[in-house]
Amino acid sequence: MNQETLDKIKQSNNRLREMKRRQEVLATEEALSRDRTSALLDFVDDLVHRPPNTEQMRLLKELLIVQQKAIAQLLKYVSQWLTKS
Questions:
Q1: Residue 83 domain boundaries
Q2: In whole angstroms, what is the distance from residue 80 CA to residue 47 CA?
């Protein structure tokens, strides 16, 4: 390969990297511009557009376990309150 061909390949690779970076920025801006009703619903919606990595899934699992415990405790208190009324 001659130098001209190598330069063209480098330019092409640079353009592709820049296009990918711009697409990621636009996807992030779009995700951030949506109305926020629930962080969990937003995260699930984002999974459709951007596949998660292992760390995100681990954090999501931990969050769901904590929320599950909190909801169970809340249901217990509501049930106790309703039986007292």
A1: 52-85
A2: 37
Residues 41 and 71 in one domain: no
Tokens at 79, concatenated: 């049930």
Could you tell me if 16 and 39 lie in one domain? yes
**CB–CB of 31/46 below 8 Å?**
yes
Q: Could you tell me if 21 and 62 lie in one domain? A: no
Q: Is 50 helix (H, G, I), strand (E, B) or coil?
A: coil
pLDDT in tens, 16-61: 999 999 888 888 777 667 666 777 777 777 777 777 778 878 888 8
Structure tokens at 42: 């937003």
Q: Rounded distance, CA 78 to CA 84, Å?
A: 10
Look up residue 34 and give its DSSP letter: S
| 34, 50, 60 from 44: Cα distances, Å | 13, 10, 10
Residues 43 and 64 in one domain: no
